[in-house]
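request received
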Amino acid sequence: MGLKLAAAAGLAFLHLPILLIFVYAFTTEDKSYQWPPPGLTLQWFAVTWNRPDVWAALGLSLKVATISTAIALLLGTLCAAAVSQSRFFGRETISLLVILPIALPGIITGIALRSAFSIADIPFSTWTIVLGHATFCVVVVYNNAVARLRRTAGSMIEASMDLGADSFQTFRHVILPNIATALLAGGMLAFALSFDEVIVTTFTAGQQQTLPIWMLEELVRPRQRPVTNVVAMVVVLVTFLPILAAFYLTRDGDQIAGAGK
Amino acid sequence: MTPAVSFQAISRHFGRVKAVDRVDLDIARGEFFAMLGPSGSGKTTCLRLIAGFEQPTAGHIEIFGETAEGVPPYRRNVNTVFQDYALFPHLNVADNVAYGLMVRGVGRRQRMQRAAEALDLVQLAGYGERRPGQLSGGQRQRVALARALINEPKVLLLDEPLGALDLKLREQMQEELKALQKKLGITFVFVTHDQGEALSMADRVAVFNEGRVMQVGTPQEIYQRPVSRFVADFVGSSNVVPPDFVERVCGKRAWGSLRPEAIRIDPPERGTGVNAQVLSSSYLGAATRLTLDAEGLRLQATVPSGTTVPQVGEAVALGFDPDALHIMEGEA
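response:
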């Protein structure tokens, strides 16, 4: 009983502050976060809707997250396929190097990329942000794909070839259906990671503002503060749903894969 | 007539390991051919060379008279039943069976009809809608068989096909495979480490050891006239008899083999020249197996039930027809 209470208290401690953010989206006080809110209003939703800087930041974030995820899906899957299906010199090294960016502190990745960009004389653009995000997005997809490919018996691929399917048909009809849910989960996670990334982005964005960076700036500069809360609330809802979906999808996927054993 | 499969001085080396070492082998059309050997003897690698999953390091392979080197698995008219069956978990049984037709672009309607026929052939009619995960081991084996046969291969390869089944099911599947092969007339090549399985099912057997073929012959030849100590030992528990003993019996100095059932147990006063003592005895039902110490040589003998069986520790004399002592020419 005591243990259950402690667990409940722990969970409450983790999640109540998020609710607080939601509450402040409706407050009538816009200079400071005053508790309890002096009054409740929906006006900040309209204000947010009419702020072009919000839309610009949101647009950039979506664009970066989409491109990074696409790159991660392509490279992560290819890399996972190579590492899990064949043996070659340096295989373990490649595996380690791919995973490394997620173990490395973001600030190191950020500084490294920034100095690389300045040495190579590359101006900051959407693509420099994408490059920074892709470093850790690839890992997420790779990890998901490699785990699933390891469980996909090598003899299944041989069976497909044996029955007359060339490499492309084998990928299309055997490998892809078996790793599809893992790719979906990896892709969603990659998207979510990219969408709220701050540290690497500060080093690779230059003057551009992704949504999280925009929020940080807003907090420093108090002007229509609840707008930040409105945006935060929308972001939480928008990112929470795909992650929940990914969770359920992979759970079902595991059941299907398990049934084959 | 050109053989179904022909190996000409085939080698397959993995680094310094000679998995297959200069193997010459002809498998006739319509034959039920067994590759028998302990694990790591190269028999599975030979099967994979026929399927096209491995390429030879040296030598030449022909399948129905056509060069096989460099031809990928999906362009060979050869299909495999895998040891772990390798069924596709995301497809139901009918789609698994019809996979070979699907990748060849056969229409769905015809595919499903042929799949139903193939399932009928392996006595699984009506199982098409199930998932592989819902089947027993024996049923999965049959699905794998139907899936391999639907492409109408010229050669069917079976990699330890019965290894994962329990004894009763294994015996039943042996009968069925044999009957199926007769009915279809396709060349079957199967790999096994179980000598009983090889002897009871195959028309001819190749015995493998350390990447080389030790002997090729009918089950009778392999069992009764092994060419070497290895073959005699691996194929059934034959007594390997050293040159000294053979010289005493037939005057020729060579290694020999003597089947346990060829040894006759006589009372000691008969005096056939070879005296022995019974070390242990185990009752097998139809016969009793004795382990004997014949003047320092350890021998196995089987005595059919219904005759007098000597007790452990008893002194006996051994008798056998000199013709039953087979001289192994392949043994130096």
